[in-house]
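Retro notes, item 3 of 5
We never archived the inputs for the zinc ion complex last cycle. Fixing that now. Sequence and ligand:
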Amino acid sequence: MSVITIHSNVRDYSVHFQDSARFIQEFSRFPERLFVIDENVWRHYGGGCLSCIPEGERMVFSVSEERKGLDSVMEIYDRLMDRAAKKNMTLISLGGGIVQDVTGFVASTLYRGLNWVFVPTTLLAQADSCIGSKTSLNYKRFKNLIGTFYPPAEVHIHSPFLQTLEEADFLSGLGEVVKLHLMGGEKTAAALAGSLPAVLERNPDALLQATRTSLSIKLSYMEGDEFDTGRRNLLNFGHCFGHALETVSSYAIPHGQAVVIGMLFANIAAVQRGLLAPSLASHLADVLLRKSLSIPLRKEYFGSDAILAAMKQDKKRTGDGLVVVMMRSDYTFEKLTDYSPDELVATTAELMESLRVS
Ligand SMILES: NC(=O)c1ccc[n+]([C@@H]2O[C@H](COP(=O)([O-])OP(=O)(O)OC[C@H]3O[C@@H](n4cnc5c(N)ncnc54)[C@H](O)[C@@H]3O)[C@@H](O)[C@H]2O)c1
Ligand SMILES: [Zn+2]
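Structure as it came back at the time:
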């Protein structure tokens, strides 16, 4: 087992990499507990490593984006109050980003802060979202509109949970892993390009290494900017165009796959702006980005007007121009806020040609 300690303005917290699932039994050290468990995690592990969790202490939670809202928050408040919730209660969550967002919001608001332990079980949650302190809820048609900054007190990462993920959910997390390795610089990007076949086969050692490296890179971007007002914004690399593509495809493209396409887009745009050498852009597309992409793409997803309308909705946009985070040849990143609709049309056409979307 190894541990990383993370400094946060709310409180310091620790990330534990667990070789064995025995850590679950050790949660009995907390005096009062409620486990909130993703329904699919329960389906796979309820008869195995989670069987030690007593029935009265667990709530099996069905997940979907529709469930990531205030109704679910109230359901969990009610379960906690049924168990005579007290300030010394520990909420223990097992699941992916949806369980994290809902239970993190509950933990941050009930009694203005409950003790909260998170066991991420998806690649996205293990390699990315489990650190960073953000909790988010959807409100009506607005995604992630409501939220707080509240880190768990402890995060426990057990890679074997990833073996049972559906392929689309695995690929969604992979996009964030690729993004973080690119943002880590030339060496980490090359290392991931080398281990990509093993990661795609879900080799346990390769997954553990990729997760650990991803988190340490994310941490380096969060340092000094926990509340996301400066450098942490750069983590939006691949997300500016990626989010627009998700919206236009009505979420048919898994988030992480949209981020991979968003990075291909950003790199073409950066070449056009003279920030990134064309040879490096095509090398990264060949060895890392296109190899992480495995969904069928349809022409309708790339309509310029719809993409433009979606990019104008970007929460982080303040002026007239569009926002795109771009990579430079030295693997540093820059947030541009003056990207124009004409550039968007030209870049999208080139992107579609490179992906052979017709
Ligand atoms: N708070 C943050 O910082 C942050 C960051 C990024 C994304 N998010 C949010 O995270 C959500 C996406 O999270 P996600 O990609 O982890 O997906 P998810 O939570 O939607 O889970 C995806 C699917 O995997 C299943 N699942 C979970 N663990 C499993 C396992 N071990 N084996 C088999 N199936 C399993 C779930 O039941 C679900 O069907 C989005 O709502 C997004 O907005 C939050
Ligand atoms: Zn993302």
